[in-house]
Amino acid sequence: MRALHLCEKPRGTARGLHLHERGVAYCREYSFHREIQYYGEEASLISKGRAKALEYRTVRIGVVGAGYVGLATAVGLSKKGHEIVCVERDEEKLRALSRRESPAGEPGYPAEASEALDEGRLVFTGNYGDLRGCRAIFLTVGTPVSETGAPDLSALWSAGQEAGRTEPEALLVVKSTAPPGTARRLSEMTGCRVASNPEFLREGYAIYDFMNPSRIVIGVDSPQDADLLLELYRGFEVPKVITDTRTAELSKYASNLFLALKVSFANLIADIARATGASGREALRVAGMDPRIGERYLAPGLGWGGSCLPKDLRAALWLARELGVDPKLLEAAEEINASRIALVVGILRERLGSLSDKEIAVLGLAFKPGTQDTRDSQAVKLVKALSEEGVRVRAYDPKAVVSGITQFSEALAALSGAHAAVIATDWEEFAGLDPQEVRKAMRFPLIVDARGCLPAEGFRAAGIEVIRLDEPASPVGV
């Protein structure tokens, strides 16, 4: 093994470090003096003069909350050999987990956790007392926002205080998305050491993403806490960013806000394309070939929703206004996203005339494929907007169920007799629909592909007008 000694500086001007797979680091101002040592595939912050390779050790770890973030954290760390106690107060979730069922339908549980479950290294409980003996306790509870966008941190405060009372020597690790300064405040409230370790997980892929991260961000206020978290994350051969808690907290907002901005930018380009006769999809594909930009999230469509992007953007807008920072860029992204609903309704009205008493199939209700989550779903908002126009909506989603919406068990059943259809969630099965069967089922052959997921040429060849949001409308046969 070889050690690379990086960024040694006089005490008081030491720097935080970003570890790369090859042991290269770049630095930022940081509050304590440490020296980084890089051993083969692993890295650890070790005090100067104590450099040595640490052996793998099983650590007792607590996780509070068994939503998709908490479940992924518990499963992922158990796969690295640690002993995990996951506290979940929702009795229905707890019963599902005890039956080895994923309460939110998250793929990977129980398959990825079977060994830890069988060996008793992964335990789900409703009792905070079972957290005794944990060296670290991850807090993964929800942090919703109010109507003003102000984050509601009451669940986080409650979880942190109860966990801290149970095991005051443990490091409390905040994975929940929260504004800069939250970890410091929780430390003041509890008297415990608190770190920030934001998650960058996609719902529906959370366990996979936890096991295959692009980076691990560790926000700490002491070198000892950095050491502990690096020990817990041994075996993850990815960049590990060591920084202060406020910066770590802001990094999560920065990531999600940029993704929201990127989608809204793509929709702006799509609007220009429709108005000029250009192909928005092709223009964005060309732009995305630039490595400075990248193709991911340059996908025009119905816009973003779910439990993260809308919430985090509203929280950032609130925070910017509270701090006196101009939020125009974020406001524009939110306005563009909201305008997608009116855009689709307008296209339907242009093609069908009055929408009153029309039957329109909406395929997809979840905010994205791979999940049953409909929180802040653009598809559900579209259903509401159509219903307000007097439309009789016929909906289908392979996973999501929404009360008050007429749903069918199959896509073709929802399409039967419809005056038009909208692809509102890009489930893979919609691309596999037989165009001839779809044409026979519908009253009028009109589909607004608001996610750009259909093989349009095949449907157009079957006599169906397919309208995408990133290209000019073309009549059938043109």
Q: Oligomerization state of this entry?
A: single chain
Estimate nothing, just give the exact number of structural domains: 3
Fraction of residues in helices? 25-40%
Structural class, from secondary structure content? alpha/beta
Q: Indicate the proportion of strand residues.
A: 15-25%
What low-confidence regions span 5 or more consecutive residues with pLDDT below 50? Answer: 1-54
If classified by CATH, what would the architecture of the largest domain be? 3-Layer(aba) Sandwich
How many individual β-strands? 17
Largest sheet: 6 strands, parallel
**Major β-sheet strand ordering:** 7-6-5-8-9-10
Task: Report the C-alpha radius of gyration, rounded.
Answer: 25 Å
For CATH, the homologous superfamily of the largest domain is named as NAD(P)-binding Rossmann-like Domain
**Name of the CATH class of the largest domain:** Alpha Beta
What fold name goes in the CATH topology slot of the largest domain?
Answer: Rossmann fold
Number of helices: 16
List the helices and strands and how they pair.
Blueprint lengths: L14 E5 L5 E5 L5 E5 L2 E5 L13 E5 L3 H12 L3 E5 L3 H8 L15 H6 L2 E4 L10 E4 L14 H13 L4 E4 L7 H9 L3 E3 L9 H6 L4 E4 L3 H10 L7 E4 L1 H32 L3 H9 L20 H15 L4 H25 L6 E5 L14 H11 L3 E5 L14 H5 L4 E4 L4 H4 L3 H7 L4 E4 L6 H6 L3 E4 L10
Parallel strand pairs: 5-6, 5-8, 6-7, 8-9, 9-10, 11-12, 13-14, 13-15, 15-16, 16-17
Antiparallel strand pairs: 1-2, 1-12, 3-4
Helix pairs in contact: 8-9, 8-10, 8-11, 11-12
